[in-house]
Amino acid sequence: MSRISCAAVCAAPTLGYVSDYDYDLVVIGSGPGGQKAAIAAAKLGKRVAIVDRLEMVGGSCLHTGTIPSKTLREAVLYLTGMSQRELYGASYRVKQEITVADLLSRTRHVIDREVQVVRAQLQRNHVTLIAGTARFVEPHVIAVKGSGQSEQARVSAGAVVVATGSRPARPAQVDFDEARVLDSDEILQLEEIPSSLVVVGAGVIGIEYASVFAALGTRVTVVEQRDRMLEFCDPEIVESLKFHLRDLAVTFRFGEKVVDVVVSDRATVTTLVSGKRILADAVMYSAGRQGLTDDLGLENAGLAADERGRLQVDEHYRTDVDHIYAVGDVIGFPALAATSMDQGRLAAYHAFGEPVRELAELRPIGIYTIPEISYCGATEAELTSAAVPYEVGTARYRELARGQIAGDSHGMLKLLVSTVDRRLLGVHLFGTGATDLVHIGQAVMGCGGSVDYLVDAVFNHPTLSEVYKIAALDATNKIRALERFGD
Ligand SMILES: Cc1cc2nc3c(=O)[nH]c(=O)nc-3n(C[C@H](O)[C@H](O)[C@H](O)COP(=O)(O)OP(=O)(O)OC[C@H]3O[C@@H](n4cnc5c(N)ncnc54)[C@H](O)[C@@H]3O)c2cc1C
Ligand SMILES: NC(=O)c1ccc[n+]([C@@H]2O[C@H](COP(=O)([O-])OP(=O)(O)OC[C@H]3O[C@@H](n4cnc5c(N)ncnc54)[C@H](O)[C@@H]3O)[C@@H](O)[C@H]2O)c1
Question: Which sites are catalytic (predicted)?
Fold first, then answer.
């Protein structure tokens, strides 16, 4: 175990209190939640340490989750030539035989660069990085074990932020062999691209990976116990995604549950409750995640996790023990890198009495399937059940010059607009750049803007952003027609 000290380590607290503890704050876990908690406290002049295994600096977000999966997607889009096929024809490829090495070299490069960024940020904010695995021995005392499993350090802390993240849930009856039967954290270790793959669980992780492998030419079967997938999204957009995935030879088995997976050195057979058997090169489980609290010694801190390893917190991310906070995946929903970062920052502010504003309620969802999906605000189903009258404005990328230039004819935007006061209530996107474009709608809605702003604003041409203007015109044309009918 090593302790990587930073220049001018341990700046004295500036807020007028002197602590007997080694650190004012110790953060356990260096993922997005932990990083932002540590830096926020350091910016307040606190003495901060963050504990994680050296090879995990940046968290599972950086090593097995968000960043590698998004980089893999980008590599697949580029090498398969998929996003250019509308322009150059169905047989267009940048590389004929794509190997795991081709894909992983890009992923490795991005991870290495990002680790450097995280370490540099911690260093320049004078956060001490303690390498190892942390465990509570007392509510204010944390023992750190190195790779040899022996205790290497003991540190005391005025406040603690637990940001230990999550791991994939693994059903006990399935024999994960790290070669053909894998969970979603292990999928990046595949030695070759499978020609067929069973994905168990059609949550966000399952569907993102299903679309990446389908784009690579793998025959994918998705098994999902519920009757539908991504039920929180706009059903029309989910239908469009399913259409695209089926077109890439994805088979969906909804309302089906896996009972058994048998593996040999050549293949796997997945058996469903209905009796169906699916032969495939590999199986990936993406059937939910479990908070990482098993070995944290929570009992020594006066805490307990629920059956899914999660810690309960109040609105300030404080656990039942006043000086211990928890953020990120370890507190469960929404379990996103996006939200974990802000939770970390807010927890640190609260711990040191810094005034905070609550996070804006309006939060975007981004799903990096191929094509991607993103939305913000209300869905049609929510507005209908709340009896809020609205009109829909729709625009398709194929109507945009930029859509033609980019070779995306299937992309679309749906705007949901109040017919009472013309406020924007929801935006739903499908296609190229959806996860970026959503922020235009988010900003307008966040400022209480109306559809008229989008009609009157001048947009750069040719851009995909113009999709907002066309959808806004569509919505206002419909509203006007109805109003005229009313007169
Ligand atoms: C495949 C996949 C794709 C995803 N895609 C997205 C996406 O596109 N957008 C998005 O917003 N979110 C996405 N997520 C979710 C996102 O990755 C997580 O929400 C985020 O990483 C949670 O951050 P965290 O701070 O809770 O910690 P994590 O990133 O989970 O990191 C926790 C860290 O704590 C460390 N740790 C654990 N126990 C200890 C201990 N006892 N001592 C010391 N250190 C410890 C671990 O080593 C790890 O480094 C994805 C997740 C997966 C799995
Ligand atoms: N783009 C993003 O924002 C992004 C990307 C990936 C992951 N994430 C986050 O990661 C978290 C975990 O995602 P996830 O997809 O693993 O979990 P999930 O809980 O969302 O989905 C798991 C799915 O597996 C199904 N399932 C469970 N057991 C099954 C069985 N035996 N047979 C068939 N189906 C089964 C469940 O019904 C469920 O639909 C989510 O909270 C998500 O927000 C976010």
Answer: 461
